[in-house]
Batch of 4 targets.
Target 1
Amino acid sequence: MVRELYQRLREYFNNLPEPTEEEKQFIRELNAGDFPITSVHRDDLEGKGFDVKKISDNDMQNLAKKMADDYHEQLFWPSMEIIAGEILGFPKVKTKDIVCPKCNSENIRYDIHESRFHCDECPLAWDDKLYVLVEFPEDSAPFEEEGTGYPAWESVDNGALYVSEEDYVRHTGKSPERDKCYRAVCWPDSQKYMGTKGCDPIQDENGIRDFGTSAYWVPLLLMEEAAGQRTDKKKAPVCPECGGTDIDILSDEGVAVCNGCHLEWPYVED
Ligand SMILES: [Zn+2]
Ligand SMILES: [Zn+2]
């Protein structure tokens, strides 16, 4: 409804023979490139059992605004990307001419579920959001010459650089070791890594330009560990005797001990 109305208003104003100054302003705003998505009506509320006689236009405005904010924060971006890209097949700008850093093939596809590029000519796959810590001086020299990479600040090894996985493969011909891989975590997600061992603040000019202030280099393994711990909790062991879940696992002895009934049983973590 609101979409058609907006479209009709635009046509009406665009076809005014001699628009006033005020009308010209409306024409500019109506042609600014906005396309309304949806609206909320009292009938929608009534359909869910609300007493619409007690709900003012101001209340409706407030509801519409809060629903718009909520949509924008949660579903707007993924929904737009899926419908525009996968369903309607809207073209995307080629960011730059992406070639495989290993074999130079231009036959590259991006897997949005994995967030990785895949080369169709060789088995290489890489992540354009992944960075590799290269140490000074032997490993970092080719990157320094090229002027790529971000300097490491608190790394033991002064002169070390964080370089993109793509650049790393291009120069070394191999994929990086996972324990050398990092992600740039931006504010506010970076808060939980402040002062964490192995995490490095991003303080150089280019780093701040690309990732903002208060961003951190966080080891990939640390991020995966944090994600893994959350899943571990879900399949916590249960005591076969009393059904308790307050269980200590002594992995070096291969047993689990129930803190409720003190039963001890063989247990191997998978
Ligand atoms: Zn390739
Ligand atoms: Zn028990």
Target 2
Amino acid sequence: MPIYDACIIGAGPSGLSTALSASMKGASVVVLEEHKKVGFLDERCGGLVSERCLRNLKLSLKGEYILNRVSEAVVQSPSGLLLKIELGGTCLVLNKVMFEEALASRALNNNAEIYTGVKVKKLNFYKSHVEVETTDGTFKSEIAVDASGALSIFTPIVLGLKPSLRRPIPSAQAEVKIKGLNEDEVHVFLGRYIAPGFFGWIIPLNSNKARIGLACEHGNPVLFLKNLLKKLNVKEVYSIIKWPIITGGPLPKTFESRFLSVGDAAGQSKPTTGGGIFTGTLCGLIAGMAIAEKTEGLVNAPRFYEKTWRRLLEHEFKMQLLYRRIFRKLDDETLDYAISLLNGIGWRGLEDFDYHSRTIEDSLRNVNVIKNIFRKPNLCLLTAIILKTIGSLLVHSALE
Ligand SMILES: Cc1cc2nc3c(=O)[nH]c(=O)nc-3n(C[C@H](O)[C@H](O)[C@H](O)COP(=O)(O)OP(=O)(O)OC[C@H]3O[C@@H](n4cnc5c(N)ncnc54)[C@H](O)[C@@H]3O)c2cc1C
């Protein structure tokens, strides 16, 4: 049995991007996936990503894995007020299975090995290597990479961190037939009766098929989803899945001397939306580079991984965590005020689908936005929002 440079647990987007970048630089890697095939469940993800995400992975923007393109969102407040916004560029709706197959085939072309139907059970660390115990025998490698997703058990054990730090919240999603969709628009639904503490979504796949889902901090997401489907008058539901999304931001540490944690396993998903394909694959590409560096003798390769992804993403994760903390404390009335205010000031939407902090920073620099805020009705709304938010933050921190 060879000693691989890296043994990667999980053939999701994060594991496969790690394998791709490491193998492109000549490292020997093996990916172990517990399911019978790569990309086994398309329905478990909305599949909405920026074009930047595919460009990072050097995947074509015309591939068959792209089901649809969207550039706008209609946000619905708890009382039904609508706000139409831009998504910050064209976004792609992926078939996650085909996307992962495309990543896997590129990694295989670079001599990565991928074994499916192999579940990793345990990691044993030695001074010279790591032993990866699986349902199909033992693999040996220089480094083990945990890319096993939101329910990973390896990262908490190896790094001695609580799994709850990743703040998983339950979500449910269905693929449905639905009439009268505008293919170019995503829909977002706010309110405690729709999705308490989070939001619901419609991601169109074409003009009569969509992924409809939600996540919620309290209650059963499947029941909330059934209510939403009823409200939207959806008659034909192909499948419903339930799976956690990660909203806690990255873990305080994502490496050990022979161990890297990547993607959802490391908490590297956007805290505002739970979207983890862009951030997970970017961190995967960096992990792959670190593995290749280690192959060339860089002793501090795991540290290089953590330093590099933090340099690129930490500020964004921190800002998104702040927005998320504020958002989850807003009651329905405040959300209504916020939508009215954003309509009132003519807010155009996200500046960048991946870097949400840029939207706030750019809005605060925009003279027209500032002028509009100081018009009377908007100023009243803003004052009400600030007072209510401070009030609920104080109540929540007293309760906590
Ligand atoms: C309902 C829903 C909608 C979402 N919508 C979006 C969206 O629109 N856009 C977006 O960017 N993100 C979205 N996400 C989040 C996105 O799916 C994840 O962030 C992303 O899949 C994380 O990739 P990953 O490779 O880290 O983990 P995963 O995709 O979960 O992959 C982990 C892999 O590891 C395998 N594995 C696990 N344990 C073992 C083991 N012991 N041995 C071997 N293999 C193992 C699993 O089978 C799996 O294939 C959504 C998530 C949910 C739940």
Target 3
Amino acid sequence: MQLPVLDRLILSAQRPSRYAGGELNAVRKDLTAARVKWALAFPDTYEVGMSNVGFRLLYHALNERPDVACERVFMPWPDMERALKAERQPLFSIESRAPLGAFDVVGFTLQFELCYTTVLAMLELGGIALHARDREREDPLILGGGPCTYNPEPVADFFDAFVIGEGEEVVHEISDAMADWKRGRGSREDLLWLLAEISGVYVPSLFRPHYNGDGTLRAYEPLKPGYDNVVRRVIPDLNLVPQAEKPIVPFMQTVHDRLPLEIQRGCTRGCRFCQVGMITRPTRQRDPNDVRRIAEQGLEATGYEEVGFLSLSAGDYSCIDGVLEDFFDELGPENIGISLPSLRTETMSEKLASQIKRVRKSGFTVAPEAATERMRRVINKGNAEKDLLHAVDTVFRAGWDLVKFYFMIGLPAERDEDVRAIVKLSADALRRGKKLNPRAEINVGVSTFCPKPFTPFQWDPMIPLEETQRKHALLREELRRLGRGYRDLHVKPHDARQSALEGALALGDRRLATAVLHAYRRGQRLDGWTEHFNLDVWQEAFAETERRHGVGLRFFAHREKGERETLPFDHIDCEVTKPYLWKARMGALREAQVPDCAYGEEICTACGACDYEVVDTIVYHPSDYRRQSASAPEALPAERTFLRLRYGKEGVAVALSH
Ligand code: SF4
């Protein structure tokens, strides 16, 4: 029997479960009956995309609507990409195996800048024109969402529209607009004008950039009257964000293989390098009294054995101690674990450590970011060295063997002694740790700082590659100085070559479409994977941009910008104001500390994120949490029952490994 082409390709792919679909709780609707058909596209592999909580939330939120069908599309691994091309098959959705071009909306999640070439690869594999201007009425609307849309200019030519900010509400408004437009006989341009009416939707073709003689931006000219800037969308209350009742369960191991549960959105600690902290303001916590119920529901519907309590810093969730204690009392005996992806050192208490240790076995990650008190004041990461060392002591004392540190180099106002201090501080922590746990080991990751839009450091230059290499040499020298006895201290500087490109793409403007397209045409895609990243090709791509437009990598990534310079994302309004960010930048030079506004109105520094009526900080007090007692264990029946099970693999399951 001859198998249909796609079945054959899937079965012969390196990892068929990336493409097979049919997972538990996946939603498959009749596409022909849907008023609006969405493809949520993730420009990376299945296992990366299925670990993205926003992607998963939107999938279920859209499928809740009876008139909408939403399916998933991922970038195939190169073996599958080659096979699709050889067989002249278009990129297809996981659920119905429908070609990408058959959807009304293709919504890409833009999680980080190095995914841009992959977006182009997916469009071309789907048979969709790369440039928005070349698409016709029947082509899908190409939409972008996610953190990169706060400066989408480098890929503005390839997208019809972007969603700025949180997507849970706006996707429904886009669905309604699309359904209305489909009913009529309007042109593609009519659709774009309709979308531009929706708050938080940015249509780049309705803005024309103008440049100065020195290559800097002069202004954006709005082409639709009254459409001068685009204000981000924000969900005022996290309790209004429905968690999927039946979350999807991948058949293969994904990067984060657990039930995701968002307990807090936003972080107002005010770290000056942190984009996600600035763009997700204010802090909004989920009602702690709902957390266990949602977790139990999700566990029951999925069979997961671990819940990820998601937050930018889980230790900042004010009711974490009570919630964890009850959670473990109830679910610990069933071997259900939790993971807290990130913790700030000053939030690490003995109690929290002992709670986490009830299940967590792997290494413990701490992100001091900078190694001297002075540098931590510059970046407003107000943790003192004693807190850091105390946290590490606590972790080693609680029985962990491995602690992972994350530091950055190349931060504004950094001196050589700050770089050297990374090794000294880590060595100090290890020395103390060894006294508490002889197996103590510390891995130190060191990355080069990359300035991001909507942060106080958005005007600062990124250090050039040679400077990164010089700082790496300082680290090596300092390590040598330590001498023997520090075999368990592993300092691993990250490859800075990718960071420079990330910096340029994060801060650049529309002229960078030339670089993205050039790199793609030279074979780049999946650039976030070291084995696929090719620096030479990207350097060539930036050289081409410089030839065409007179500005290149140095201009975008390594140049200091002036206070009055028009930035490529000035027409995007993240509500945290530009004057506030500039003031914070000046504050960095004075090493001024800004407190966390989550704990009292009087601490508000008027960043602009809250309107105090609809959008405001939502933080619970530990006393708001009502302790939830553990249910009595179910009594086992006295008689024994023998069950004999036989299983086989049918349908899509034949594509899965044992
Ligand atoms: S407006 Fe005030 S309370 Fe709201 S996030 Fe900004 S600093 Fe915090």
Target 4
Amino acid sequence: MPQHFSNEDYLKGIVLFGLNAATYKMALAKILLEAAKEQKNKIHWSELASSFFQLYKSRLAEKSMPQQGIAHRQTFMERIVQQHQSGKLSESDAIEQVGLKGFIDVIPRFQTIGTNKDIVKEFFYEFQYGSTLTLKDSLLNLSSAQLAELEGEIDARWGLLEGAFSINQSQYHLANDIREIYLQSGYERKPLTNNIPFLSGYQGNICFYCAEHLDSEIHVDHVLPRQVLQHDEVWNLVLSHPECNLLKSDRLVGKHFILKLIARNENIMGSNHPWKAKIAASLGTTPKQRAANLQKHYAKVSTVLGNNYWGGCDSYNPAIDPFYKKLITVLNNESQSI
Ligand SMILES: [Zn+2]
């Protein structure tokens, strides 16, 4: 005998079952219930984006709990809200970004119970991506008592997910504050390829990460990931093979690369290059200050990125890295311990 479930059961199924990688389903469910409450059968994309943004903005302002489960990462919505709160993104720009990228996964995937995509396919709404979402009677016919009950369950589930996500993220608030500070003084990405000729000589004309010769294709890499530092200051830029850059990705480098970066920066300081002044302004006027300040940045970024760590290419060994044998490196680091 086929079993009969109510529309309310199906909606609970969507929200309560399945492994949620993030809290997006809860946010969308709340927006759908709100529209049903107002008996609104069409939601335009811009309204959807606006509601989504406002929901996360108030949620994160209130409690600031992680919205996804992988330690040291952020959801798109957390990044957007943080950029807005630090004054880097106006409200209308933030909403526009949400409309463009905030729904890529959740709108098409919402109508799934667990991993089953057929039971509730197009059961509650249809959508034209980027244009409108049309609610069906299955939502519009829910009684106000049912809507209230569902809303309560969604709120409880959202809180439960945040609690589960925060277990792996003991430094969440500290990491968030550090991101925020970097965000405030950060700026938009600049083209970096014009730095290649300048940087090459100071790092011994070899790849920073594997110490092999550079080929024709060269990547400019942020040693401490740009997603945290939010700037392209030269003290943090090195050249690498595209493959080495991809291997490293957004991970935290091992300590030996920080010591190498300090030595590389001293090579620039030892020259009369005009960018000397920029490095001095950012890191300090003496080698000791610069080393200490760079280590401070490394410690902060470590707090944000945690154990998302990259020790280097297998073949790399700092003890035989030709960089340390180059004349400029030897001269500039003579008085310092490496
Ligand atoms: Zn390399």
